[in-house]
Amino acid sequence: MSKLPANKQINGTFGAVWVNNEKWLDVESFEAKVNPEYEDVNMAEDLATHKKLIGWNGEGSMTVKKVYSRGAALLANAVKTGVLPEINIVGKLADPDAFGAERVAIKGVTFNEFTLLKFEQKTRMTEELSYNFSDYDMIESIS
């Protein structure tokens, strides 16, 4: 087996995020993950505990540089009126020196919280936005 070239490891600087088709240029970090949910299954004459997939949940987070009021702009009025907006996210990681790109569409997004105001002296401010989601599509993957 030949050695893997070091320059093929993807650099996160080439990641991008679109929220409701708007490219957010202030995203510092992004993560979306799926957590399978299993139920134990015991079989006759077998001491092992097996697992049966019974569902899944999606969760993630992104950190944005505090340039805009991202969370408040999306949710401040919505949580007061009880009418939440439909939110979809597309994330992409496409380092031009890598073997390919990854792109995923995340649907049914609900943000868990947002910050109305926060500051700290002599500190570059960021905003953490954690979320859950109910659907996703793998649009592109690296093979």
UniProtKB/TrEMBL annotation:
InterPro entries xrefs: DUF2001, XkdM-like_sf
Pfam families for the chain: DUF2001
Descriptive protein name: Terminase
The organism of origin for this protein: Ammoniphilus oxalaticus
